[in-house]
Amino acid sequence: MSRIIQFIKGLLAKGPDKEERNMINDLLSPEAQQAFYHMTSADQRHSLNVMKTAMEIVEHEALAASIDVDFLKRCCLLHDIGRGPKMNSFRKSYGVLLDKFCHDWSLKNSQKPSNNIFKDIMYRYYNHPVIGCNELMRLGMVHEADIVLRHHSGNTENLLINEKKILSVLMQADNSN
Ligand SMILES: [Fe+2]
Ligand SMILES: [Fe+2]
After folding, report:
1. Are 134 and 113 in contact (CB under 8 A)?
2. Ligand nearest to the CA of 151
3. 31 Cα: distance to centroid of ligand 2 (angstroms)
4. pLDDT > 70 in the chain, percent
5. Which ligand is nearest to the CA of 45?
6. Distance separating alpha carbons of residues 105 and 8, to the nearest angstrom
C-alpha cells in the first residue's frame, strides 16, 4: 500500500517552489545545484521531504548543537543524485518490482552502465549511492560524498561520531519518505 501511495505521490510531485529554490541556492554551490536539478521532479521533492523530516528529527532529538545542520541538509538534498534524470515513477516501480521478484538475476545484470534504458534503470537502482558519491567527489564535496555513499548500506566504518549521527538521521528520514 505504501508503495502505491509513493507511486501516486511521485506522479504528482512538483519541484521546489520559490522559497525552496532560495534555500537550495544558499546551501549548494552552482555545480551542486545543477546536480540537484538534474534529478526528476519526484526525486527533487523526495530529497526536500527527506531534508524536512531530517530537520524534525534534529529538533526532536535536540541534535542541532552536536552536528553541522547545513552539512546534513546538503546530504539530504544530494543523497539520490546518482539516480539521474530518468528515474520517473514508472521506472522506479519497474526497479522495485524487478528487485523484488528477480533480485539475483537483476543484480547480476546491472553492474555496469548501459545504453539500454531498462538495464540503466537497474544499474542506477542498485548503484546510485556510488554514482552520487563519485559525482560529489568530482565537485570537491568529499565529506558529503562519503555520507551519500553509505546512505543505503549504513556502513559506519571510519566515521566520526558526528558523521555517524548525520548518516543515521539521513537514513531515518529517507526511510520515512
Ligand atoms: Fe537512495
Ligand atoms: Fe532517498
Report:
1. no
2. 1
3. 20
4. 98
5. 2
6. 28
* Distance of CA 76 from the midpoint of ligand 2 (Å): 8
CA of 109 to the centre of ligand 2 (A): 23
Please tell me the CATH code under which domain 2-175 is placed: 1.10.3210
> How much of the chain, in percent, has pLDDT values that exceed 90?
67
Assign residue 140 a region (left: φ > 0; alpha: ψ between -120 and 50; beta: otherwise): left
Give the pLDDT confidence of 40-92 residue by residue, as tens digits. 999 999 999 999 999 999 999 998 899 999 999 999 999 999 998 888 877 88
Q: How far is the CA of 63 from the centre of ligand 2 (A)?
A: 21
**61 CA distance to ligand 1 middle (Å):** 23
Q: How many helices (H) and strands (E) does the chain have?
A: 10, 0
- Calpha distance 70→51 (Å, rounded): 10
